[in-house]
Input
Amino acid sequence: MPVDVVLDPVPVDVAPEVAPVDPAAVEVPVADVAPVTAEHAAEQTAAAVAAESEAAQAVAAYVVAVAIGGSRNGVAWPGLGELIELPAHEAAAYLQFGYIKKPE
Output
């Protein structure tokens, strides 16, 4: 015969114990301080975007480690063991899954 059991919720204090911090006592390295002007921030952002874009467009040759059917950009995939040139951002995913490998 089933028995209905109802449990009363038990209050639990889960608030973390954190000591108060005096902001005046915290030293922040100069390099971690935000740029002073909007122009400086824009320059930093533009430089970071340019560097990231340049790195993503870098092309290198890789060896096909797994036979892949179909095509890439309208061209059939090279055969197993053949070389393929890929941009770094695209190659990263194929390397992660073992579809390609760096040439020895």
Notes: The mean pLDDT is 81. The chain is about 30% helix and 15% strand.
